[in-house]
Amino acid sequence: MNILETINCPDDLKKLSPEELSVLAQEMRDLMIETVLANGGHLASNLGVVELTIALHQLFHSPTDRIIFDTSHQCYAHKMLTGRARDFRSIRTRGGYSGFYEPSESPHDVTVMGHAGCGPSLALGLAVGETLKGGSGYTVCVIGDGALTAGLAYEGLSNIIQQAPRNLMVILNDNGMSISENVGWMAQWRKRWLPHLRDQLELDADFQSLESLTEALAPKVPLGPLVLSLGRGIKNVIGKAITPELGHFWEEMGFTYLGPVDGHNIEELEDTLARARRYSDRVPLVHVLTQKGRGYTPAEGNPVQYHQPSSPKAGAGLTYSQAFADTLGLLMAQDQRIVAISAAMLDGTGLAALKTRFPNRVFDVGICEQHAVSMAAGMARAGLKPVFCVYSTFLQRAFDQVVHDVCLNDLPVVFGVDRAGIVGQDGKTHQGLYDMAYMRIPPNMVLAVPRDENELGQLLYTAINQDHPFTIRYPRGEGIGVGIDMELRNIQVGTAEIVREGKDICLAAVGPLVHTALSAALDLAQKGVEAQVVNVRFVKPIDPALIEELCEHFTDVVVLEEGTLLGGVGAAILEAISRKGLSRPRVHQASVGDIFLEHGGTGELRHTLGLDSEGIVERVQSILGGG
Ligand SMILES: Cc1ncc(C[n+]2csc(CCOP(=O)(O)OP(=O)(O)O)c2C)c(N)n1
């Protein structure tokens, strides 16, 4: 039996010797590597926080004390230490553990999270709640240097300083990386101080053993406390001589800055965290230096690729992100006004190659979706043609900027909404299910959904060549495999496309579901049912000719969408029919429903929801059979 198998709860850790803890860390890394290489998932970030997580669970008593990992993509070690090592291999699979915090799995997962920057605010809320309840629980918020590019994080930190709870600690998990290399002031601060950080690390290690000894002796010897505080003073002076301003920013902000600490030295971590916990005059901020990918050479060498290595089942076909970036590259080469923006997702959105090609016209702004949208509005006002490539789930955060800065001013900002629809194993925090509902609300917005990777390029061309806000949503992963037209052409805004004629029922779909509907129509034809298939293409404005056609020729229409039941394309069609004062055709919405969709394979999830060819055939048969 290895040591990890003996850990059923964090208390079991407390029985282990330092040597055993270091063997445990290795076992945890082995399990992480084996699992992620089989299932996909976040690897490099998790390898980097093994010792930090061990130290936290040694010192604090979760779940009475609450440990929040901002974003929670780096919670694998935490899951292993809180009773989930045995079935850890099920992570991200349907019915298995989530890859993020999931309170229904364990009371140690404080709250569902997957978006960056909300950790400080959540932690403050928990700490305040605990105080008002009269509880004694402590709250720890671990936040990465990447997440610290998010404006929301500073709203939380600023209010933490204001409220100064005595039961809260912030830990800066500094590995110099977001998914790609980090950007912004934090990254510059780090680069400036990195050589000094090393000196400070050594000083801290020496001082810490001395401080622990003095702390133990202080109550027992005369003048002990005086010697201790004198020692702290001297250390501060030496520290400041080596690194005159390190920590200055945090101290000025109102924290007590401790560190930097070697994030792979469990003893040093425990000592510093214990010290920080005793400081109660100001909220402590512990600066921990970790290495992304630690202990696995390929990940240490390429933390970007190993942030979330693609699942082994991923194929090699052209992805939607790549198709979008390819067309964008063509257009940028022809028109100097076109600029591209990413909020810390250069690699995922396919913009990394464009950044190399057009270094001054591709902007990685950090985890700052709100800022990205407002900046795009400013750029459009300045005469540029900005394209913001963003995952559907993360754009949610910038809804106000979409409405207020872009649509209210009717500015030509193009939103390339990637990972729209079911994303699969990342689960409910990352499913892209709401964009059709929220992006069709603001006046002036056009909202288009290409049926395949070829139409995606045509719609981007269309979007760039008009003067209004324009959203194109497209899914994660590979396209249908259709040929790509050499010539880009304009598609008339607000026009749907009939892709198959039929008289018995209409299947109106958006995105690749058009192809699924076509395949269902072929099956239905074998059973004597002639289904019409329509590529709705524009959710807004919805094609008036399509609505006419539906009202005149059909009793039933099935609307197929990878989105929420409320507010999406099904709702748009229902509203349009209802505005005509008609109650026919009957609209059957085949969507994800009004639920938060769990993790699992995309194929499995679609099957369960009836959004595959088989499900559509069954649905049509039940409708036509009177079911
Ligand atoms: C609002 C939001 N935008 C983008 C992301 C995608 N994302 C996940 S982890 C990550 C990088 C986080 O970096 P950091 O906080 O330093 O953690 P590390 O992975 O380096 O440990 C990004 C950009 C997200 N989760 N949330």
Automatic annotation (TrEMBL):
Pathway: Metabolic intermediate biosynthesis; 1-deoxy-D-xylulose 5-phosphate biosynthesis; 1-deoxy-D-xylulose 5-phosphate from D-glyceraldehyde 3-phosphate and pyruvate: step 1/1. One of its GO terms (biological process) is isopentenyl diphosphate biosynthetic process, methylerythritol 4-phosphate pathway. Its cofactor is thiamine diphosphate; Mg(2+). GO terms for molecular function: 1-deoxy-D-xylulose-5-phosphate synthase activity; metal ion binding. Homodimer. Belongs to the transketolase family. DXPS subfamily. This is 1-deoxy-D-xylulose-5-phosphate synthase. The lineage of its organism: unclassified sequences, metagenomes, ecological metagenomes.
